[in-house]
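Consortium newsletter contribution from the modelling node. Members have asked for a concrete example of what our holo predictions look like. Here is one, prepared for the zinc ion complex that several groups have been discussing at recent meetings.
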Amino acid sequence: MTRFVWILIVALCPLFANAEISFDKYFEARTLRVDFTLAGNYERTEIFMEQMKKQGEWAGSHKHLVDEANYGNFRYRLKDKETGEVLFSRGFSSLFQEWQTTPEAKKLDRSYYHVALMPYPKQKVQLIIEMRTWEGGFKELLALDIDPKDYFITEEKGPDYSIVPIMENGPHEKKVDLVFLAEGYQGNEMDKFQKDIKRLTDYLFAMAPYSKHKNDFNLYAVLVPSAESGTDVPGKGIYKSTAFNSHFFTFDEERYLTSKDLKAIHDAAAGAVYDQVFVLVNSTTYGGGGFYNYLTLSTVDNERSPQVFVHEFGHGFAGLADEYYSSSVAYEEFYNLKVEPWEPNITTLVDFDSKWKTMIADSIPQPTPRIKKYDGVVGLFEGGGYTDKGIYSPVMDCRMKTNEAPGFCPVCCDAIERTIRSYCE
Ligand SMILES: [Zn+2]
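And here is the predicted structure:
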């Protein structure tokens, strides 16, 4: 081997070293939970620290530490304090960011509680939390030095709810660990809660691509009793005392079901080992909500609950966008048409090469007319992401567009499978 080649190899080594972070070198297999509040109004975002906790086993992959997907309106990263190397990163979205696009945010400041989970560092690290800007870059909101030996990182135990394994397929680090929390179920309704989980997840795992990946999931039920059954429906004067204060009429949208009580939600989930939290709401009313790596909810007893359950999990788990474009959603200027959106299943054509361009057959015109001939075909259909002009989606219909769609489109399937792999490899 010539000297030149040796120099080349030595020069390339740091690149390869960066490609995969050694979990055992930098982390112990426990969870660091960082709680913070995002607050502000339509033009201002501030962050306030709440608490740090050392929790149970780290549920995520030991291999995929630095996030390759780059989804979400925010992200957090752990950097080595000495070298500045990024050791771990995750994207997430927030109800706060959606609220910022409502008319109310022009008149009022609000705050939203957040919980970020990461593997527990062995050495001093810096936590960076950033928001995605309107122009598509990232803006730093917080840079916090964390000493893993800091005795203010509490190991206090949370509430001691019963946790029931619904399906276990292997070690947490190799599986998607999905925890269901009971919301609006009284103590004597826990059998119903477990049957509801079974019924809804049976529907999920009968649908592509989840049907091929049932063995990649562990499912757990956290039996959290509520004082009353159901949930709040403020627009109809219905108020129920429940564990996580969920409610319809979020942003005054009748069907929009959310909760702001992320502290109670993660306190309840903390007894389990989990990647994702799904709050199942014991109600017959139609609705739900899902936010990437933040929170997913749906009701259980509406005739369309199975479809809503799968749709909202598409948001919360895989970062999928809504493919519909005609709705009464109260957002103003949700997407910047001059920037490629981060969601995998919509495009502004600013960077279509990064999306599903190669999945469109040569015979399909682009843009693709919404006519029967192109039903079920991957193309470039104008309309998506609450916007009828300038945003395009991959198919005429998909689970991310309507409840009548037979399932997910090939582009959404692809994104879901990539997400599953990021937890299981
Ligand atoms: Zn789709």
